Amino acid sequence: MIRVRTNLGRVITIRLNAGDVGRIRFALSPVWEAMTSVRALSNNTAQSVHGPWLQKVRPTIAGDDLTLLRALIPPYGYIPDFMTPAPPRRSTSFESGLAAIAATPHEIVTDELGRLHHDTPHPLLPELIANPAKALELITSALETYWRRAIEPEWRRMRSLLQEDLAFRLDELASGGIERLFRNLHPSISYRGDRVEIDRPYTCDGEPMAGQGLLLVPCVFTWPAGLAVTGAPHVPTITYPPRGLGRLWEDRQDTTDSPLADLVGRTRAAIVSHLDLPMSTTHLAHQLGVSAPTLSVHLSILRNAGVVSSHRDGRTVLYHRTPLGHQLLAAATPLATSA
């Protein structure tokens, strides 16, 4: 069984037994990203990491009515748990997450919106509490519109980063066990043998149902601290910022017609450009749109030349750019820019 308690509003503790440890799983969620990005719009701390996205999306949604979403997702504090449903699989669509929200039992909607109104009062909330069916209709409609305009255009970029994080975490778990996984997950998350502790300045009510394990969700817009879902009947969930988040919104150098491409070829130049973080052959091939066997040939040539290197982490071979690769890419940048 997992038990949840708070320690003076400072530490959330999720207690684990042997069965729960065996049911730890990872997933990514487009709905989580949409929900938490609304908070980023009104949170000044998001500017340092998500500044390019904010500058791009704010003019796009300037005429949109976000009153409902802002009422449901305040800048700080509690967000109704039913609005962040647990993904049933490692990778799910936005539409499936939206359907899960729409299927929320009305008593849960009433209860969680009531808690939200208690913590962060808003004039829209009493009407939603009184009519949960209408509330779900309005919420899903507003969220879908927002997703199409603010998040979907950037989802491919975000998903690539999230998938790379999932691959890395699964390798961590396979090669070093649960201790290694949590040691490198996030500074605010600690594994203590029979429990996971999360440093967060809010309280949690209720107790999760037994036997649900623990869900870990990398989430771009929960930076810097992540979120925790612990209230019954929801699956206990911890979100955390993915690796490489600081480079998410950087415009990747186009090496197609660069001097580097002239030297090593377009595909190999693209490989060098993409290896900001260690990647497996499968994930890199997906990003570049080439077959894995073709990519392996190019990687072998680059590795023999000392431009990329590889190491085995668990069952996966990860490739990364070497110092020589960094130098080649950096040297090509000013030449490509001035051409």
From TrEMBL:
Residues 248-339 form the HTH arsR-type domain. CDD domains: HTH_ARSR. Pfam families: HTH_5 (PF01022). The keyword Glycosyltransferase does not apply. GO terms for molecular function: DNA binding; DNA-binding transcription factor activity. Coiled coil: none annotated. Keywords: DNA-binding, Transcription, Transcription regulation. This is Helix-turn-helix protein.
